[in-house]
Design a protein that fits this description.
With 151 residues, the chain is α/β, with parallel strands linked by helices. The chain is built from 4 helices and 6 strands, in the order βαβββαβαβα. The chain has one domain: Rossmann fold, CATH 3.40.50.360. Strands 1, 2, 3, 4, 5 and 6 form a 6-stranded mixed β-sheet that branches. Helices cover 31% and strands 25% of the residues. It binds flavin mononucleotide. Flavin mononucleotide binds next to helix 1, strand 3 and strand 5.
């Protein structure tokens, strides 16, 4: 199986840690959102999209990218995010956009990520030390499940 992970990680590289952890299992290609070449999508069976969450949404570079996609066929996808709250339902909107473009979204992963947004900064931030070892293990287990779904 050929996989591609497209991610944007700006604040504390929280999402990059998760992207690396997932890719350590999938052993595919990892690219930053600004470096992606959508012409090469047909080379991949599975494409992952991830970023931190900003005001409840994925990073605009990921959203802009997917909103401009042409429709695809027979293409699987997964979504992942890190955020101060770590809520998995932050992923739902990206999942819906991908589904509207024809992707079959087979997985969604979320965990907490160190968050120094606005007022949190004064108190040294929230979700300190996240993603931690347990989060990395959960991300790897998620990737193993993706592999199983594709075997
Ligand atoms: C401007 C801004 C807005 C944010 N909005 C949210 C939010 O709505 N919900 C949340 O849980 N975390 C929020 N966060 C925290 C980030 O999602 C979190 O730090 C994330 O792990 C950053 O990922 P990165 O280090 O990969 O860029 C926000 C952070 C910033 C700087």
């Amino acid at each position: 199986m050929n996989s591609l992970i497209i991610y944007k990680s700006t604040e504390h590289k929280n999402t990059e840690k998760i992207a690396l952890g997932i890719n350590g299992i999938l052993k595919g290609k990892l690219v930053k959102a600004e470096e992606v070449n959508t012409d090469q999508f047909n080379m991949y069976d599975l494409i992952g999209f991830g970023s931190g969450i900003f005001y409840g949404k994925f990073h605009k570079s990921i959203l802009n990218l997917v909103e401009h996609f042409e429709k695809v066929e027979n293409k699987k996808a997964f979504v992942f995010s890190t955020s101060g709250q770590g809520k998995e339902n932050y992923n739902d909107s990206l999942k819906s956009i991908l589904e509207s473009k024809g992707f079959d979204v087979i997985g969604s992963f979320a965990c907490k990520g160190f968050d120094t947004f606005g007022p949190f900064k004064i108190f040294g931030g929230i979700a300190k030390g996240r993603p931690n070892e347990n989060d990395m293990k959960a991300a790897e287990d998620f990737a193993v499940k993706l592999l199983k779904k594709n075997s």
